[in-house]
Every structure is written in structure tokens, then in C-alpha cells.
Design goal:
The protein is an alpha+beta fold and 331 residues long. It is built from twelve helices and twelve strands. The strands form two sheets. The chain has a seven-stranded antiparallel β-sheet with strand order 1-3-4-11-6-9-12, sandwiched between helices. Strands 2-5-10-7-8 form a five-stranded antiparallel β-sheet. The chain starts with 11 loop residues before the first strand and ends in a 5-residue tail after the last helix.
Length: 331
């Protein structure tokens, strides 16, 4: 267990009984902020210990007395705050959290923050660069995120999936206290531990991309099926046969058809037909109202029989080609 007296005691950054000095020192680690003691009844006594890991940094901070802390927006980093003793009120954006040894918090960099730490509130804090979380998120999504990553501010320390994650941070501090800093020289070990913490936070705690990164992923298509699909898209306007698709995929027609049945729930020719129908619909959506493009597009994409083409089109899209073509242009 974490020793509540003073975690990370071998890594002191400063001790101070002066609020202005503490504010300037803490700002060197985090960011400029306002720091105001609320009452003079309890002496101000700040202590800050910090261990720089690799990408991240582990901090222990207390002010001794009740203080207001107003950092505004953090901008370049996320900050996980795990109370070891005492309580705090955390307002970050629209979130308002009563933080305690039962409930940790995470501050989002784009949301203005105001905090009131109560007397003798002691926090273990994990500083995580914004770029570190965003790069892992992009790896999970397979593309750059379209909006800033925003976590739910409250993290439970006593139930749910975040309980084990908070325990990992506490155990890390405990291991540093018990074993010293020698093992921190082994960069692959430290990097692996940090990656586990960062990815674990993305996967175990709720945020605005949780539904996307936690949804079941389809297994990758077999190589020959993917080759066939790529060939179909590249030759959608050409007069290709199933034999040509099979040759491009480097398999027999039978193996190709079995692959499409098993992994795409269709046949290669129906897949080709649907891709062609999609292309026709896209072209009709962009045509001027009333223009007579249906027959031209049907023939361009390999549909010789217009009646059959219309039936396929309506079955796929729920409307006839002429109905699509007659709609006003989309903005």
C-alpha cells in the first residue's frame, strides 16, 4: 500500500510555507495558475515531489490548508488526480466532482478548471502529455480524431474498471518508494509501463470516443478476398468476369466464391453489381434535376437490361433511379 506520510519522498521538488512561492514552483511542472489560501486558521504548508518517467510524470502534492486553484485550461496535458487523503471539489467544464479517496479525477486540457482542495488534501497525480493520449487514440481509431478527446472527469477508485487502473498508478508510486529509482534507468520497462497506463486509461475510462474504440472489430479479410475487392473497385467500369477477378486474386473461381460467401455473405458478381449500383446512385445524386442520365449511367456501369437494372436499384435503395435523379441537388 501507499505510505500516506509522503509518497515519492526520495524525489523532493520543493517545500514551502509561502503560497506565492508554491504557485510559481508548481507552475514550472504544470502550468500558470491562481492559488489562493481560503483561510488563515490552518498554516499553509506545501510539499511537491515529482518523478519524471518517460512520457509521463508522477507527482505528489499537498498544500496543508484549504486552497482555491484556478488553472483555466491546461492546453497541453491531461492530469489524473488521485486523492490519498482529504477531499477536493473539482469543476472541469460542465463536470462538478467531489473528489476523495473513493473518487479520483481527470482534467481535460480544453475545459476550464477550478478546484478547491480542502485542508490536508494529499494527491498523487499522473501528468500525461496531450500528444501521448491523442497518438494512442489515433492508433485505436485508425485515423486522426475529429474532435478533442474529452474524458468523464470522475474516476472511481473503488468499483468498476477504473478501480484497477487507479491501483496501477498507486502501485507504481509504491514500487518507486520501496525500490528506488534504479529500475527507472531501464527505458524499455518504463516505456512499456507508461504505454499500459495510457492505453488502459483510453480503454477503461469513459470518454467521447469510448463507443468507437470498444466496439467489436471485424476480423481482417483473407488476402485473396481483399485482392478481389481491390480489383473490383479498380475496374468497376470495365467488362470484367468472375474468372478475371479470380485470376487477380490468385485463386480458383470456386475458392473465390467460397471466400466471398464466408466473409462477405455474398458472391463476387453480386458484390460487383452492388458496387456499380452505388456508383450510379452517387452520379445521379450529383446530376441536375430532370436530366436524362439514367440509361447512360446504367450502360456505363455494365447494366445492359434497363428493366432489370431498375429492379436491382430499387431493391438496394428503396427508390427507382428516376426518383433519385429527380431530387433537387444536395448542397
Amino acid at each position: 500500500m501507499i505510505r500516506l506520510g509522503e509518497p515519492l519522498s526520495a524525489f523532493p521538488f520543493f517545500n514551502s510555507r509561502d503560497a506565492d512561492e508554491a504557485r510559481l514552483k508548481v507552475a514550472r511542472i504544470f502550468c500558470p495558475h491562481e492559488l489562493r489560501p481560503v483561510s488563515s486558521r490552518t498554516p499553509f504548508a506545501s510539499r511537491h515531489n515529482v518523478v519524471k518517467l518517460g512520457e509521463t510524470a508522477l507527482n505528489y502534492l499537498t498544500y496543508g490548508t484549504e486552497v482555491d486553484i484556478v488553472p483555466g485550461c491546461l492546453d497541453s496535458f491531461y492530469l489524473v488526480q488521485i486523492p490519498l487523503h482529504g477531499t477536493a471539489r473539482i469543476r472541469c467544464g460542465k463536470h462538478d466532482v467531489h473528489s476523495s479517496p473513493a473518487t479520483a479525477s481527470i482534467l481535460n486540457p480544453d475545459e476550464p478548471t477550478h478546484m478547491r482542495w480542502q485542508q490536508d488534501n494529499r494527491q498523487l497525480m499522473l501528468w500525461i502529455p496531450r500528444a501521448s493520449l491523442e497518438s494512442r487514440l489515433e492508433e485505436h481509431l485508425g485515423e486522426a480524431p475529429s474532435a478533442p478527446l474529452s474524458f468523464d472527469v470522475a474516476l472511481s477508485q473503488r468499483e468498476g474498471m477504473t478501480r484497477s487502473w487507479c491501483r496501477m498508478v498507486l502501485d507504481l508510486a509504491d514500487n518507486i518508494d520501496q525500490c528506488g529509482a534504479d529500475w527507472l534507468r531501464y527505458r524499455p520497462t518504463v516505456a512499456g509501463l507508461e504505454d499500459c497506463l495510457i492505453r488502459g486509461l483510453l480503454q477503461l475510462h469513459r470518454h467521447n470516443y469510448s463507443d468507437r474504440i470498444n466496439q467489436p472489430q471485424q476480423s481482417a479479410l483473407p488476402r485473396h478476398v481483399q485482392r478481389a475487392i481491390d480489383f473490383i473497385y479498380a475496374h468497376v467500369e470495365d467488362a470484367i468476369t468472375v474468372g478475371e477477378v479470380a485470376r487477380a486474386a490468385c485463386v480458383s473461381v470456386r475458392s473465390l466464391e467460397e471466400g466471398f460467401r464466408k466473409h462477405c455473405d455474398t458472391t463476387p458478381l453480386v458484390f460487383l453489381r452492388n458496387v456499380r449500383l452505388d456508383r450510379v446512385r452517387k452520379a445521379l445524386d450529383g446530376s441536375a434535376p430532370g436530366s436524362d442520365k439514367v440509361a447512360v449511367l446504367a450502360h456505363r456501369f455494365g447494366f445492359a437490361h434497363l428493366g432489370r437494372f431498375s429492379a436491382y436499384y430499387k431493391a438496394r435503395f428503396g427508390e427507382t433511379p428516376s426518383q433519385t435523379a429527380s431530387r433537387p441537388l444536395r448542397n
